[in-house]
Every structure is written in structure tokens, then in C-alpha cells.
Amino acid sequence: MNQDNRNLVLAIVCSALLVIGYQIFFELPKQQALEEQALQDQKDLILTAPENNTQSQKEVETSIIENEVINAPRISIDTPSIEGSISLAGARIDDIVLKNYTQTLDPQSSKIRLFQKLGEQKPYFAEFGWIGSDMEDLPNSSSIWSSNNSILEPGKPISMSYTSDSDLEFKRIFAIDENYLITITDRVINKSSDEVTLYPYGLVRRTGLPKVDGLFILHEGPIAVIDEQLREVDYDDLEDDGDEIISSEMQGGWIGITDKYWLAALIPDQKDQSEFAFRYSKKSSGQWQGDWRGSSKVISPGSEIESTSYLYAGAKTLALLDDVEESIGAYRFDLAIDFGWFYFLTKPFFYTLNWLSKYLGNFGLAIIGLTIIIKLLFFPLANGSYRSMAKMRALQPKLTELRERYKGDQQALNKAMMEMYKTEKVNPAAGCLPIFIQIPVFFALYKVLYVTIEMRHAPFYGWINDLSAKDPTSILNLFGILPYSVQNWPIPDFFQLGIWPIVMGITMFLQFRLNPTPPDPVQARIFAWMPVIFTFLLATFPAGLVIYWTINNLLSIGQQWFIMKQTNKSK
Fold first, then answer.
1. pLDDT for 323-339, tens place per residue?
2. 46-338 is classed in which CATH architecture?
């Protein structure tokens, strides 16, 4: 074989190896991935697209925005807590207004709207139904249901029906309590001659990113409790990271979307094992979704199946959330309220405040009452600390003498001070104890004031008309004496010192004056500036929290003064 033929054969062999290698290492994995994706898409069909399986997403979007869907007949909702309607297109719950809550303190301002209809600026709704991979005519988002009812009221359920071309009859019953819990009972009757397998599902979908506080102390966005574990996903994280599907290994669980004070939560049958998902779509101005899919249900010819689920759509009132957990077994439904790391303190604090407010007639007085109770509980501990601080204050002349004697020799000074502390039986760090005790209490109370709806628009006396908002007065217009408003001035809120933050700063200054001067000059300067720093810092905090801190300071001043007086008499 000459050189040219050898090169030709070599070229053919190399080409063949290249083609085979490409098929093995590129095309085959690609095909496998496509097959796996197809299987996954089939598995997730309910979660990604509850619409008719034979329609493309584009066709579904088109059908949704058609006038006949947007303008479909509706069933009214009327309870003591909410008003709204259910669209017969898809049997979709997409219109809920909270009767008892307004946008602002003005009683004439508009009511809080939770759900928005399709065709409005930011649709927000809940849907329920069935999915089956081999079914082509299941009711979808554009299917028009029939109903003989006109209004849904407590104690008066409504029923809807839909019959498919494959002889499956779908019945749906909506029931509602006097608050925010809607019960959805779905029934399927198989009138065909074939066995059918279906999966129940529910979803809540929000279009458009809502306005959020954006603070690390509060979660707003997709939320769930799955396998008895709290799961919180930020809007931007879900947008960046993509869908998150969670196969539950336990019965029960719930999923939804939470705002600061409002909640839309889906609760499947707590005896069933479900699959949950958080999802994001770039459609419109962004769509965020939480959904669940129940286990498969087989319907023999001539038989029927039933699935019951729930929708909580309303205010995050703790008592109501606890009632839902107790009545239908929704595990840790109270975690819809972001009580934070100090949950063990926050929730008892809220119940105590709520109880006190019923007897005192005001949440502000309840805060003062809680402050006194906390002070009494920690009285023995704080008392010992204040006694140590009084002894330290009495030792100030000796400490000054030691600093003069060992000036320039820090090591010798520290040794001499430690020996004196040991002789006098004084703990120099004891004075910090009341502050350390106060920190978790402070954060727990901050949570209560910030996240619980019961504190929203709760008035005090005088100029404080909302304990959950900052003090509305400002030093820049002499607290309202000067005839102009500074609310819209382009300056940070912490410069607009209100009356209560200033009073708090004064009480903190007086309390620190009773404390012994720290031996370290740097530490002494820090302590001297702390009242000023805290005054500006708390200017932006809820007024209820500033009131708590002020009253606590006053009680501490009284306690320290009394102990110092007793200490001086005993000399």
C-alpha cells in the first residue's frame, strides 16, 4: 500500500472514529437528557402548567387573556372579613378584598386588596384542579364551569360542575368560614368505560414583584412548611436560581406567598403525601408561584374520587393561624408570621401584650405593662448587677489613684486593679449584664411590633397614632410648632428626631451617668457617645419600641438610685 492509499485509509478511519465519538459523547447524552427532561416535564406537568395538556404555553396565554375568559361570569364572596368573587373561568379565586383593613390610617382610604383579577395590572390568584398525563380534555384555566349559585357566604357552600368529552364529570364545592379559610372539595365521577389516573393540585401565582420592605428582619415572598421544616425563598433568589421542587417524605405540609401582614397559603389534604414547588417565570413582569401536587388517584369505571384542600387568603392574625393549625392539622402554620430567631420569646411576648391590651384598653399601655413585668422578672439579677455597679462607683477615687501611681505601666496597673477587685469582691463586668439581658428582649419586642398585624395602626396617646411606625414628630419643625411639614424633605429619617426618641436619649444619658466611669479611656468615650448614637438610631424604629426602651430606662434609673442610696447608708 503506497503512501497515498495509507493516508486515505487513515483519514477514513479517523473520520469514522470522529463520527462515532461525536454520537457517543455528544448526541447520546443529549438524547438521554432530552428523554429525562421529557419525563420530568410529564412529572411536573401539574406544577408548571395546570392548563390543558394538549395546548402549548402560548395557546394557554392567548386563551387566558381572551375577553370571554376575563369577562366570564362570577360567584360573589361575602363574609364579615372579606369580599370578592370567584371566576367561573377555571373556577379561579382571583378577587379578594379585606374588609377590616385600610391602606392608611384614614378610615376612608381604600381597603386592602389581596387577590387581583386576570386582566388587571398585577394578577394574583389561586387555582385548583386535576392533572393526568394521558388526558386531553381536563378542565383548564380557560374552561367555563357552571353553577346555580350566585354568592358564597359562611355556612352556605356553593357547587360548580364541568363535564369533559371523555365522560368525566367534575364537581367542585367551595365553603368559607367567617374569616379567611376557604375549603375546596373536588370530586371526579368516571362515567366512561376506562380506568383513569388523576393527580389533585393547587397553585397560588403572583404576577409582578410587589413592594417589600427589603429588611433582613422580615421575610416576604414564597414560604412553606414541608417535612416539618420552614422554607423561605426570596423573590430575587427564586428568579436567579430557578424552580425548586421538593418531594415531601411526610404527610401534610403547606405552601404559599407571604407579605408583611397578608398571606395566601395552600394547604393540601394533611393525610396525603404531596410534592411542592416554588417557581418563577419571566412572563409578563415576572410570575412567582407556589404549588402542590397530591399522590395519584385511580378512578375505576362507574366510581368516583374526592380530594379536599384549603386556601387561607387574608390577614396574618396569630389567633386565626393557630386555629387553622388546630382545626385542619396544618403543622406550624403560625410560622407564616416571621417571629425570627427569638421565637421562644416573641410569641409569648405577643400573647402577653395582647392579653394586657384587652385589660388596659391600649397596646401602648400594654407595652408599658410588659416592660414592668420583664423588669420584675429580672429584678434579682439586675439588682445584683446594680449593687456591683454601685460598689464600682464607690471605688472610683481608688482607681484614679492607681492610674496615677502606675502611669505608663499598663501591665502593673491591670494587676493592681485586679487585686483590688478581688479584695473588694467587685465584678467590673457586672454592669454590662442588664444590657446583655435587654438585647434579646429588645429584638423579640421589635419583632412583635414590626411583624404582627395586631400592632398595625394601633394608637397610643397624644401624637402617636401608630405604634408600629416611627414617631411622626420632628425636631426640624419644632415638633409641629412651626407651620410646615418636613415629611417629604430629602433628608434621612434619623435626622428627623421625634419627641419620644429624644426623651429616650435623655433617659439613657441619665442612666449612664449613674454607672461608674470605665477605667479604659476609649471605653469611657464610647459609653459617653452611646446615648447620642441610640437617639438617632431609634428615631427610625417603631414608636412602641422607643416607648419600651424609655420606660425601661426610667425603671432602671429608679432601681439604680435606690440601690446607690442604700449602699451609701451602709458605709
1. 999 999 999 999 999 98
2. Distorted Sandwich (2.70)
